[in-house]
Amino acid sequence: MAEIETIKCNFIGDFKVGDNILVNGKALCRLSSTNEGNTFNKLMVVQAGSIVEAALDQIIYRAQNYTTEGVPNIPADALKKIRDTEIERFNNIIQAMKTHKLLDGLGATIYDDLHRLRELRNRVHIQFDDKPKGLGRNDHDAFNGKNVVWSLDLCIKTLKHLSEKFPRPETLGVFSHDVSIPKN
């Protein structure tokens, strides 16, 4: 059985989304524990990508909707720009994060890494089997053990960063979720 990392996701602004992230984390752990013959590699990467997308979206959601509470570590001018922009879909969320330098603390390649995870996640749509470039069209090549471990690590690293950098006030901890992610 894979080792599990539990992250207190104290950045959640919408309880239902937090609940969904929690359920998807449990599903990801279950997939990992029963992944004989790498059968669930693709599903694990898809789950990890979906969790990251939902988590990043919570920062945008809070920036746009929590006008009284605000979001720590996002300057007022960036908050105004985020509030004035309709942001949706994984690609646009990543672009907004990059524009406002919200994930710069995760290293120079974080935005490219997130785009790569997005492209892998989007391979759930069978017709999108040509991205990321260089992985070929065979799912067993794209969703190899190395990419599963990489996607789980990126998921854990992103959730930890969001928890540390963009926490909600502790007094509002009711939306906090302890999310478990396998470390494989």
Give structural notes.
There is one protein chain. The chain contains seven helices and two strands; from the N terminus they run E-H-H-H-H-H-H-H-E. The N and C termini lie close together (8 Å). The chain has helices at 15-33, 41-65, 76-83, 90-99, 110-122, 139-142, 145-165; strands spanning 4-9, 177-182. It has a two-stranded antiparallel ribbon with strand order 1-2. The protein is mainly alpha-helical.
- The value of Rg in angstroms is 16 Å
Strand order, main sheet: write it out: 1-2
Which shape, going by the Cα principal axes? globular
Counted beta strands: 2
Helix content: 40-55%
Brief sketch in words of this structure:
By secondary structure, the chain is mainly alpha-helical. The protein contains 7 helices and 2 strands. It has helices at 15-33, 41-65, 76-83, 90-99, 110-122, 139-142, 145-165; strands at 4-9, 177-182.
